[in-house]
Amino acid sequence: MTAPWITAAFVIPAVMLNAFPAAHYLAPWTAVFYILLMQSLRHIRCAFPRRLGLPIAALVPVVAGAMFSIRLAAEPFGPQWNKTESGVAWCDCSPGNTERAAVKRQLTALPGKHLAIVHYDDTHNFYIDWVYNEADIDAAPVVWAHDLGPERNPDLLRYYQDRSVWLIEVDRNPPRVSPYPR
Predict the structure, then answer these.
(1) pLDDT higher than 90, residue 81
(2) Looking at the DSSP assignment, which residues form a beta bridge with residue 166?
Protein backbone atom coordinates (compact mmCIF):
# COMPACT_ATOMS: atom_id res chain seq x y z
CA MET A 1 0.00 0.00 0.00
CA THR A 2 3.05 2.27 0.01
CA ALA A 3 3.29 2.52 -3.82
CA PRO A 4 0.37 4.97 -4.20
CA TRP A 5 1.82 7.22 -1.49
CA ILE A 6 5.25 7.15 -3.15
CA THR A 7 3.67 8.03 -6.49
CA ALA A 8 1.72 10.89 -4.92
CA ALA A 9 4.87 12.12 -3.20
CA PHE A 10 6.62 12.49 -6.57
CA VAL A 11 3.80 13.55 -8.91
CA ILE A 12 2.29 16.39 -6.87
CA PRO A 13 5.59 18.26 -6.22
CA ALA A 14 6.59 17.75 -9.86
CA VAL A 15 3.36 19.36 -11.03
CA MET A 16 3.77 22.21 -8.56
CA LEU A 17 7.28 22.95 -9.90
CA ASN A 18 5.95 23.42 -13.42
CA ALA A 19 5.95 27.03 -14.60
CA PHE A 20 2.60 26.59 -16.34
CA PRO A 21 0.58 24.13 -14.25
CA ALA A 22 -2.58 22.67 -15.71
CA ALA A 23 -5.07 20.16 -14.39
CA HIS A 24 -4.22 17.51 -16.99
CA TYR A 25 -0.67 17.28 -15.59
CA LEU A 26 -2.18 15.55 -12.56
CA ALA A 27 -3.41 12.64 -14.71
CA PRO A 28 -0.75 10.24 -13.34
CA TRP A 29 -2.13 10.93 -9.87
CA THR A 30 -5.73 10.03 -10.81
CA ALA A 31 -5.23 6.30 -10.33
CA VAL A 32 -3.45 6.94 -7.03
CA PHE A 33 -6.39 9.07 -5.87
CA TYR A 34 -8.89 6.31 -6.63
CA ILE A 35 -6.74 3.65 -4.97
CA LEU A 36 -6.49 5.75 -1.81
CA LEU A 37 -10.22 6.54 -1.90
CA MET A 38 -11.17 2.86 -2.22
CA GLN A 39 -8.77 1.84 0.54
CA SER A 40 -10.19 4.56 2.81
CA LEU A 41 -13.74 3.33 2.18
CA ARG A 42 -12.66 -0.25 2.89
CA HIS A 43 -11.10 0.81 6.18
CA ILE A 44 -14.22 2.77 7.19
CA ARG A 45 -16.46 -0.19 6.35
CA CYS A 46 -14.25 -2.58 8.31
CA ALA A 47 -13.95 -0.26 11.32
CA PHE A 48 -17.69 0.45 11.53
CA PRO A 49 -19.34 -2.52 9.81
CA ARG A 50 -23.01 -1.86 10.57
CA ARG A 51 -23.66 1.59 11.93
CA LEU A 52 -21.47 3.90 9.80
CA GLY A 53 -19.31 2.04 7.31
CA LEU A 54 -21.91 0.74 4.87
CA PRO A 55 -23.97 3.96 4.60
CA ILE A 56 -20.81 6.04 3.93
CA ALA A 57 -19.60 3.60 1.27
CA ALA A 58 -23.07 3.59 -0.33
CA LEU A 59 -23.12 7.41 -0.45
CA VAL A 60 -19.95 7.70 -2.55
CA PRO A 61 -21.61 6.92 -5.92
CA VAL A 62 -24.55 9.18 -5.03
CA VAL A 63 -22.25 12.10 -4.18
CA ALA A 64 -20.15 11.48 -7.31
CA GLY A 65 -23.27 11.48 -9.49
CA ALA A 66 -24.52 14.69 -7.87
CA MET A 67 -21.15 16.39 -8.39
CA PHE A 68 -21.12 15.34 -12.05
CA SER A 69 -24.68 16.63 -12.59
CA ILE A 70 -23.94 19.98 -10.94
CA ARG A 71 -20.76 20.41 -12.99
CA LEU A 72 -22.60 19.54 -16.21
CA ALA A 73 -25.43 21.98 -15.46
CA ALA A 74 -22.98 24.79 -14.57
CA GLU A 75 -20.84 24.38 -17.71
CA PRO A 76 -22.52 27.09 -19.85
CA PHE A 77 -22.26 29.65 -17.04
CA GLY A 78 -18.68 29.01 -15.92
CA PRO A 79 -15.40 30.46 -17.15
CA GLN A 80 -13.83 29.09 -20.32
CA TRP A 81 -10.90 27.25 -18.79
CA ASN A 82 -9.67 25.83 -22.08
CA LYS A 83 -8.91 29.24 -23.62
CA THR A 84 -5.42 30.72 -23.92
CA GLU A 85 -4.23 34.20 -24.86
CA SER A 86 -4.70 33.36 -28.53
CA GLY A 87 -8.29 32.30 -27.95
CA VAL A 88 -7.56 28.65 -28.75
CA ALA A 89 -6.24 25.76 -26.72
CA TRP A 90 -4.78 22.32 -27.28
CA CYS A 91 -8.24 20.79 -26.92
CA ASP A 92 -10.00 23.33 -29.16
CA CYS A 93 -11.75 21.98 -32.26
CA SER A 94 -12.10 25.29 -34.12
CA PRO A 95 -10.90 25.45 -37.74
CA GLY A 96 -7.58 27.11 -36.90
CA ASN A 97 -5.66 29.60 -39.03
CA THR A 98 -7.97 29.84 -42.04
CA GLU A 99 -6.10 32.86 -43.44
CA ARG A 100 -2.89 30.80 -43.78
CA ALA A 101 -4.86 28.03 -45.45
CA ALA A 102 -6.30 30.53 -47.96
CA VAL A 103 -2.83 31.91 -48.78
CA LYS A 104 -1.48 28.38 -49.20
CA ARG A 105 -4.37 27.52 -51.54
CA GLN A 106 -3.67 30.69 -53.53
CA LEU A 107 0.04 29.87 -53.90
CA THR A 108 -0.54 26.18 -54.66
CA ALA A 109 -2.91 27.16 -57.50
CA LEU A 110 -0.05 29.00 -59.22
CA PRO A 111 2.36 26.97 -61.40
CA GLY A 112 5.73 25.93 -59.99
CA LYS A 113 7.13 25.83 -56.47
CA HIS A 114 6.98 28.72 -54.05
CA LEU A 115 8.82 30.19 -51.07
CA ALA A 116 6.61 32.19 -48.71
CA ILE A 117 8.62 34.59 -46.56
CA VAL A 118 6.40 35.48 -43.62
CA HIS A 119 6.76 38.94 -42.11
CA TYR A 120 5.26 39.70 -38.69
CA ASP A 121 4.63 43.20 -37.31
CA ASP A 122 5.74 44.11 -33.80
CA THR A 123 2.15 43.68 -32.57
CA HIS A 124 1.78 40.11 -33.89
CA ASN A 125 0.24 37.51 -31.58
CA PHE A 126 2.91 34.79 -31.62
CA TYR A 127 0.45 32.13 -30.51
CA ILE A 128 -0.81 32.24 -34.11
CA ASP A 129 2.14 30.98 -36.12
CA TRP A 130 2.25 30.85 -39.90
CA VAL A 131 5.60 29.13 -40.40
CA TYR A 132 5.40 25.35 -40.40
CA ASN A 133 6.18 23.00 -43.25
CA GLU A 134 5.60 19.54 -44.59
CA ALA A 135 7.93 16.72 -43.58
CA ASP A 136 9.83 16.77 -46.88
CA ILE A 137 10.40 20.51 -47.05
CA ASP A 138 12.38 20.57 -50.29
CA ALA A 139 9.66 18.65 -52.18
CA ALA A 140 6.78 20.75 -50.82
CA PRO A 141 4.96 23.00 -53.28
CA VAL A 142 5.06 25.86 -50.74
CA VAL A 143 7.88 26.36 -48.24
CA TRP A 144 7.19 28.74 -45.37
CA ALA A 145 10.04 30.74 -43.77
CA HIS A 146 10.37 33.60 -41.30
CA ASP A 147 11.53 36.95 -42.63
CA LEU A 148 15.13 37.00 -41.40
CA GLY A 149 15.88 40.53 -42.55
CA PRO A 150 18.02 41.87 -45.40
CA GLU A 151 21.22 40.36 -43.94
CA ARG A 152 20.10 36.73 -43.81
CA ASN A 153 17.31 36.46 -46.41
CA PRO A 154 19.80 36.21 -49.34
CA ASP A 155 21.00 32.83 -47.97
CA LEU A 156 17.40 31.60 -48.00
CA LEU A 157 16.87 32.92 -51.55
CA ARG A 158 20.05 31.20 -52.78
CA TYR A 159 19.00 27.85 -51.29
CA TYR A 160 15.51 28.06 -52.84
CA GLN A 161 16.57 29.74 -56.10
CA ASP A 162 14.27 27.46 -58.16
CA ARG A 163 11.14 28.84 -56.44
CA SER A 164 8.96 31.89 -56.87
CA VAL A 165 9.43 34.03 -53.77
CA TRP A 166 6.54 35.77 -52.03
CA LEU A 167 6.38 38.19 -49.13
CA ILE A 168 3.44 37.43 -46.85
CA GLU A 169 2.53 40.31 -44.52
CA VAL A 170 0.28 38.46 -42.11
CA ASP A 171 -0.70 41.32 -39.83
CA ARG A 172 -2.51 43.27 -42.55
CA ASN A 173 -6.23 42.78 -42.90
CA PRO A 174 -6.48 40.71 -45.05
CA PRO A 175 -2.92 39.33 -45.16
CA ARG A 176 -1.05 40.73 -48.14
CA VAL A 177 0.72 38.45 -50.60
CA SER A 178 3.16 40.19 -52.96
CA PRO A 179 6.26 39.22 -54.95
CA TYR A 180 9.34 39.44 -52.76
CA PRO A 181 11.39 42.56 -53.57
CA ARG A 182 14.81 41.40 -54.72
Answers:
(1) no
(2) 116, 179
